[in-house]
Amino acid sequence: MRRRKYRYDRRAPRHRKRKIFKGLFISILITVILVATIVFVISKTEKKPKIITGPTQKTVLKASNSNLVTQTINEPNYTFQLPLDWQQTKSVINNTQIYTWHSGTTDPKKIGRELTIYSDPIPATYPVTYELPLTSNGSTISYGNISDNCKNFTSAGSTKSLVPVLARWSGVDFYCNIPGFVDVQIGTGTIGSINSVTLTGPQSGAKHYFFLYKDRNISTDYAIFYAILTSFKAK
Question: 160-188 burial by CB neighbour count: b if 16+ within 10 A, else e?
C-alpha cells in the first residue's frame, strides 16, 4: 500500500480537522463538568452563616443533661435545683438580695458557668447579650424562645457602640450589651417589665426576680439554665 506523503502546498484532509475539533470540544466539556462538580461539592460542605430574622424566629433546644445529678437549693424566699458540683460564691442581703453560684469543678467540660439571682429591687438596666422571655405561673415560671446574640437584631447593633442600647425580643424589652457582645450573658424578663418577673409564694408573697446566667465554657449549654428555671419555685 502506498503511503500518502505530506505536501506543504496541499490542505490537510477535512476528516483530520474534524477529529481535532472534536477532541478539543470533548476536553472543554470535561473541564466544565469537573469545575461545576467541584463548586457544587464546596457549596454543600461549606458552613453557611446563621441568618437572624428577628423576634419571630423560633428556637427549639433539647436538654443535654437529662440524667444530671442535682442538689436542692433552699433560700429564704425560694427553692430550686442546681447541678451537684455547683457552689455558692456570693450572697448579699442588704437593700437587695443577690445570690451567685458557680460550676465548682475542674472538669473542662463544666467550668466557666455562673448563675446570679437578684430580688427586690432588681437591676433594671443590667445589659445582657441574650434574652430569655419568662411567664409567671404564680409561684413558678415557664420560659419562651431564647434570642440569638442581640447585636444581630438590634437597630443600633454596631459592634463599635460604646454603650448598651435598648432592644426587644418577642415583645420583651431589655438592654443589649453590645460592648460585650462576645460574652454569653443570658438575662430574663417579661412583657412590660425589663429584667423582671413577679412570682407570688404562699409565704414570701409577691416578689420580683431577675435571673442572670453566664456561660464562658467552650461548649455553651443552655439546658442547665432551663432546668434551673423549670425547678424554681417561690416559697
Answer: ebeebbebbbbebbbbbbbbebeebbbbb
Q: Confidence band (pLDDT; 50, 70, 90) for 28?
A: confident
Q: Cα–Cα–Cα angle for 104, 110, 113, nearest 5°?
A: 70
| DSSP 3-state of 21 | helix
**Could you give the count of Cα atoms lying within 13 Å of 141 in the half-sphere of its Cβ?**
31
Whose grid coordinates read 502506498?
2
Give the global pTM: 0.70
Q: Kindly report, residue by residue over 96-110, the tens digit of the pLDDT.
A: 688 999 997 777 878
Query: Is 95 in a helix, a strand, or coil?
Result: coil
Backbone torsions φ then ψ of 34, nearest 5 degrees: -65, -45
Distance of CA 201 to CAs 7, 10, 76, 156, 205, Å?
109, 107, 11, 39, 5
- The x, y and z cell numbers of residue 129, run together, are 447579650
Q: Which amino acid is at 219?
A: S
Mode of pairing for the β-strands spanning 130-137 and 185-189: parallel
CB under 8 Å to 173, separation ≥6 — which residues?
166, 167, 189, 194
Q: How many residues belong to the chain? A: 235
What whole-number distance in Å separates Cα of residue 95 and Cα of residue 73?
22
Q: Of 157, 91, 129, nearest to 222 (Cα)?
A: 129
Q: How many CB atoms sit inside 10 A of residue 142's CB?
A: 11
Whether 216 contacts 202, CB under 8 Å: no
For 114, the enclosing helix (H) or strand (E) is strand 113-119
The residue type found at 12 is A
